[in-house]
């Protein structure tokens, strides 16, 4: 199914969503600094996607980390540990961090933190139930990307709410990634918490 034009830059993530997918970005950090904050083991290597799968498999929580513009990004396939609230707060120490993820059970979440404090967070299917220190801070950008701040994501919507969540991440950070960014080579290591 074709997604609306506004979401097409993120449709490359579609095959990853049923298995779990997480993208966390943090302003002004190096890949190593973001890896440290997210709890990536000290055994890290620069690997392409195929090399990472061959070396680590898919049964361990793995982060692949790079930089685009002024933002470090961590992509996790097959899980969402890199975007959990504690990880988001750690990524945001002294800076801004944003995460969007979906688990294999289709739970999806958006979070924006600054200086270790979560400002806005919500399940992507429930954008009207925001939490955080400034839950209304992103109402304008949310509305612009199709996440209505006063009602749930329609159950019968033809697209996953992850796509507007990723589009919201782009709207507030400017970060745009492609399938080629995922393929690397990227700093790669196991998430140990």
From TrEMBL:
Species annotation: Micromonospora sonneratiae
Matches recorded under InterPro entries: DUF6461
Origin superkingdom: Bacteria
UniProt-recorded name of the protein: DUF6461 domain-containing protein
